[in-house]
Design a protein that fits this description.
heterotrimer, A alpha/beta, B mainly alpha, C mainly alpha, A: four-stranded antiparallel β-sheet, B: mainly alpha, ABC transporter involved in vitamin B12 uptake, BtuC, two-stranded antiparallel ribbon, 11 helices, 73% helix, globular, disordered C terminus
């Protein structure tokens, strides 16, 4: 469904991603693993089109490397940004309607009702100012806003960051149920055990380079994760 | 000399001048709020509006209303071009908070010179849109001045409706709030920026056009209004639309009373002194919540 | 080489350039050439004062024309009415500019918002211009202040009495050149001093500098005062060089546009930038005979082109001027 081919990303003169190639098959839930600064968020942003890339990004076989983020939303990709990033001055309902910005008006209102039933708890928040919500509530609205675009591929950047344990469980349940319903999902998260348990496939990064990719069970069974996280592993080519 | 009637008359005059400041400041604030760019060329869109209307009216011999429409459209396109060539590329570079100010300053000089070469330095004027005298609460006012007041109220109400209730307006607010998140919603952020820049320029152009029958049209006519608009946005709080409107009327009234107390050559100095006082006492402005770090 | 101070060793190309410029009167006594270059040097000093605030301290002001004009008018008026020598009154002008600069900028320094700083400094400069053109009794308004005395003759050992009147272009050139060299030496020393490094640290990150216990207000105030002092001093020199002042020529927005163009073209945040920019712009404007009508258009176009395509300016084009003497990070 989504392929990266030799993707490199530069922030100014700094290269943060080096020749990353990976494949996310349709209907799978994939997690991106790696220590701090490994480039996890950058991989998601490269998929969503929020950073310029060298290399190719393919979505359903189509080269979308040069497409801006907004156009990718129209193709069925939706990115839920790190730290929620709601439009804080607007109500939760307005946030959701903006999530369905590309839908025709009638379809947008219809989709709002569908999304409210997909994400439990959103209904009660609709009238509230997004900036007044708690972190967990904001994450629910952020996910609901991402779903408004009727995506076939959902990208979640650090969906659990800064949430209370209770909110973490709620968000986890929603992601799992979306996955069971057949949505293709890519997410990243610091907690390795939780990530592997939630996903079918895992991608391991270190220093902006791909170290390993494969079924989550295999990645979890080997000792490669431990080696990367506990610093005994040295990436090929000597990454910083 | 300071009879109640005289004061009332000054307040009315202040409201009329203030509505022009409000229009200018609204556009400036809209651009700042949406893309964090301080547009130093805003006064030149005021000037271009007047010249375009003059050309459409006198040279193309269009009736007044279509001439104004053509002029507004022309300024919209000119502004979108300016945005496309200068502001948009600069916003992709480092240090754009300063470079966009410098670039729009350069653009303003260039537009003044283009106007000078195109229309010359002879002061020109448009005819009154409406003739006659209207009595407003005991004060006799030329109908044109009353028209200015009404037009601005209608335009501001229209703008608020656009921003609040339309899909396009919501997209502008989303981009203003968080451009990256707006992109992730499928909103074409650069296009919204360009459109906002164009609409803001149209507001300035409209101010220039409705004032054209009263003031002299010349290549440098945009300089005093932009200075006033700067004062208003600081007074009202940069990026705040209610602040721009209320601040505009407030400045108009303060100025009119100041001119009544001193004399008309001190008009600009009154406005600018208000600015310095506001900066000392309430730097975030009357309606601004906080000052952003730059 | 060790005997030379650090600021002199730091930018050899700049100082060789300045030295070469000082030799011009030995090559030509052409009044026109000397006049143009003298003006270019005045604009270079003025732009350098702005560059100190904007390029080194990151204080994006747009009102330096006020300090220039205050220096010019205060010095001219006190020389005309007080009967004092311009050698004395120019310091009155500089101090007046510095005091006004400190007072006006005090409230601004608490605010870190760039647009507020830009707006208020521009508005302040306009107030000064309006005051100047409205106080007709004192300044003669837009009619212009004429009859300003030139610098009084100096007795120089070996040369006798040297005068600086309108006919003495070579001696005036040397005088202005000395001001340029002194200003650049001072700035070169300042930006490499401890204070200068702190100022640049504040520009690069206010938060980081503050977390290290640096008093932002004190250093910003210091920089702006020094910068205004320099602008006022060179304004005074300008007054006693051109001998006629009008509010538009000494305080107008056009002056700010010209200074912005010079600094950006030369390279903002570099010592040599304003001098390079000023020489290139002034000389090419004269060469293309654009001194009259469309000089401002050229400045406007140049500002736009430079920020778009060469934000680091000519001073950092390595091919032309060798290794840049400032760290690359100073681009802003």
């Amino acid at each position: 469904m989504l392929r990266l081919e030799n993707v490199s990303v530069f922030y100014g003169a700094f290269q943060v991603l080096w020749d990353v190639s990976l494949d996310v098959p349709e209907g799978t839930t994939a997690c991106v693993l790696g220590p701090n600064g490994a480039g996890k968020s950058t991989v998601l942003k490269a998929m969503a089109g929020l950073v310029p890339v060298r290399g190719r990004v393919l979505y359903r076989g189509q080269d979308i490397s040069r497409l801006p983020a907004a156009r990718r939303v129209g193709l069925g990709m939706s990115l839920i940004l790190e730290r929620r990033r709601l439009f804080t001055g607007m109500t939760a309902r307005e946030n959701l309607l903006l999530g369905g910005y590309l839908l025709p008006r009638v379809r947008r209102d219809e989709r709002l009702r569908e999304v409210v039933s997909l994400v439990p708890g959103v209904d009660a928040l609709l009238g509230k100012r997004a900036g007044d919500l708690s972190g967990g509530q904001q994450q629910l609205i952020a996910i609901a806003r991402g779903l408004m675009a009727e995506p076939s591929l959902l990208l979640l950047d650090e969906p659990f960051l800064g949430l209370s344990p209770k909110a973490v469980n709620e968000v986890e349940a929603i992601i799992m149920s979306l996955g069971r319903a057949g949505m293709t999902i890519v997410f990243n998260e610091q907690n390795v055990r939780k990530s592997l348990a939630m996903s079918d496939r895992a991608v391991l990064l270190e220093g902006g380079r791909l170290i390993a990719a494969g079924p989550s069970a295999e990645i979890g069974a080997g000792d490669i994760v431990q080696r990367v996280y506990f610093g005994t592993h040295v990436a090929q080519g000597g990454a910083a | 000399m300071m009879t109640p009637m005289f004061l009332w008359e000054q307040v009315l005059n202040g409201l009329i001048a203030g509505s022009m400041y409000a229009l200018m400041a609204t556009g400036l604030s809209l651009i700042w709020g949406t893309m964090r760019v301080l547009n130093f060329a805003h006064g030149e869109f005021f000037m271009l509006g007047a010249f375009f209307a003059l050309t459409a009216f006198e040279l193309l011999e269009l009736p007044l209303a279509p001439a104004i429409a053509v002029a507004l459209l022309g300024v919209f396109l000119a502004a979108v071009l300016v945005h496309r060539v200068t502001v948009a590329p600069l916003m992709r570079q480092r240090g754009w908070d300063f470079s966009t100010i410098a670039a729009t300053l350069g653009v303003s000089i260039v537009l003044q010179d283009i106007a000078l070469m195109t229309w010359g330095e002879r002061f020109q004027s448009l005819p009154y849109f409406v003739e006659g005298i209207v009595h407003v609460a005991g004060v006799r006012l030329p109908a044109q001045r009353v028209l200015i007041l009404l037009a601005v109220i209608i335009v501001v109400a229209g703008l608020v409706t656009l921003l609040r209730f339309t899909r396009f307006g919501m997209a502008i607010r989303a981009v203003a709030s968080d451009p990256e998140a707006a992109s992730a919603c499928g909103i074409n952020t650069p296009a919204i920026h360009a459109a906002t820049f164009g609409i803001a320029a149209m507001l300035a152009a409209l101010a220039g056009i409705i004032l054209a029958p009263i003031i002299a049209i010349n290549p440098w006519m945009g300089v005093p209004p932009i200075l006033k608009a700067f004062v208003v946005v600081v007074l009202g709080g940069l990026g705040s639309l209610p602040g721009a409107v209320i601040g505009g009327y407030l400045l108009g009234i303060i100025e009119a009373l100041g001119v009544a107390a001193f004399s008309s050559e001190w008009r600009e100095a009154v406005a600018l002194t208000v600015l310095i006082i506001v900066i000392w006492l309430r730097p975030q402005g009357l309606f601004g919540q906080r000052i952003r770090e730059a | 080489m060790r005997l030379l101070p650090a600021w002199l060793r730091a930018s050899p190309r700049l100082w060789s350039g300045v030295a070469l410029l000082g030799l011009v009167p030995l090559i030509t006594r052409d009044a026109y050439v000397l006049q143009v270059l003298s003006l270019a040097m005045i604009w270079a000093i003025f732009a350098s004062s702005w560059n100190l605030a904007v390029g080194y301290a990151g204080l994006k002001t747009f009102g330096h024309q006020a300090f220039f004009g205050i220096g010019a008018y205060v010095s001219a008026l006190s020389a005309m009415h007080g009967g004092l020598s311009p050698w004395v009154t120019m310091w009155f002008g500089a101090v007046a500019a510095a005091v006004v600069g400190a007072l006006v900028c005090l409230p601004l320094l608490r605010i870190r918002s760039l647009p507020h700083l830009a707006i208020v400094t521009l508005a302040f400069a306009e107030i000064v211009r309006i005051l100047c053109s409205n106080l007709v009794d004192l300044t003669r308004g837009e009619l212009g202040l004429a009859g300003i005395p030139p610098f009084t003759p100096l007795s120089v050992p070996g040369l006798g009495l040297v005068s600086f009147g309108p006919a003495d272009r070579a001696s005036t050139f040397v005088l202005i050149w000395s001001c340029l060299a002194a200003s650049l030496a001072f700035l070169g020393w300042l930006v490499r001093s401890r204070t200068g490094l702190i100022i640049q640290a504040i520009r690069d990150s206010q938060v980081a500098a503050e977390s290290l216990g640096v008093s932002l207000t004190r250093y910003k105030l210091f920089t702006l005062t020094i910068s205004a002092f320099l602008a006022g001093a060179v304004g005074a020199v300008y007054a006693h060089f051109v001998l006629v002042l009008t509010p538009t020529s000494a305080l107008g927005i056009a002056l700010m546009v010209q200074m912005t163009a010079i600094t950006l073209v030369g390279g903002i945040g570099t010592l040599q930038g304003p001098l390079i920019g000023s020489l290139v712009l002034t000389v090419s404007a004269e060469g293309l005979r654009m001194a009259g009508d469309h000089r401002m258009l050229a400045f406007g176009v140049l500002i736009v082109l430079v920020v778009l395509f060469a934000p680091r300016g000519l001073a950092r084009l390595d091919l032309l001027f060798g290794r840049p003497s400032q760290a690359a990070g100073a681009a802003r």
